């Protein structure tokens, strides 16, 4: 059904001007098969309807999308040619069934004909599109699709346990006073402000209240609360200090180029090895996707190495 929906989206997006549909400039050939500008335009419109991208995307941005679509057209052609070469077949009944699904989605045969007319396609060329899509789906099923048993998943988990760990985390609150680089006195002003905040904390005032008053970070609206934080989320010197602190302790002033910090640690959790049962469901999805992408990539690499391209 996914393939049918993608074709339907194309039909709904390809309301191009006659001049566009007449564009048949050959962009490249793949083992003698031409890929034209009109095919590229249709692919781009499937991603971005004309009413969206005209006047919205720059020439540079459009070039990025065109290059992406052209690369996909080339890859799909290579895969299609390979599918034919190894004897993959799609029956006329499969194509007719897809056409019937399209008719149902579009409600009436008249609406299908109208969409075909506006997109510059004919029923024959639509069948060719569906035929190619069905061939690619069958190729995926026969050569790329990967089925993983629980035994496969467990073997991968056991071999890669280091990938399934929750990092050590802390619950931290922070006071940050920004050093304004546009102000010649920015650093001294920031230092005076953080020192005043620090004196308030030393005198016993509540950290959250002081953070709300003195911090220039958005976290001030929550009393400086950052919630659970793991390594890589704080400034280096702040992080180093915070993860070395005991629970329910407050740091001294920490200076960074961007300003001054005071951090309070309110809780800590140790690094945690996740169990197989905890990760199994997500692992099944992620590993299947990764293995199928790897198979497809290697197949395309091999096909490209043998292909003849003429631009």
| Approximate shape | elongated
Topology as a string of helices (H) and strands (E):
HHEEHHHHHHHEEHHEHEEEEHE
The amount of beta strand, in percent, is 15-25%
User: How far do the termini sit from each other?
Assistant: 34 Å
Please report the total strand number as a whole number: 10
The CATH superfamily of the largest domain bears the name Porin chaperone SurA, peptide-binding domain
Q: Report helical residue fraction.
A: 55-70%
Largest sheet: 5 strands, antiparallel
Gyration radius from CA atoms, angstroms: 30 Å
CATH topology group of the largest domain: Triger factor/SurA peptide-binding fold
Number of domains: 2
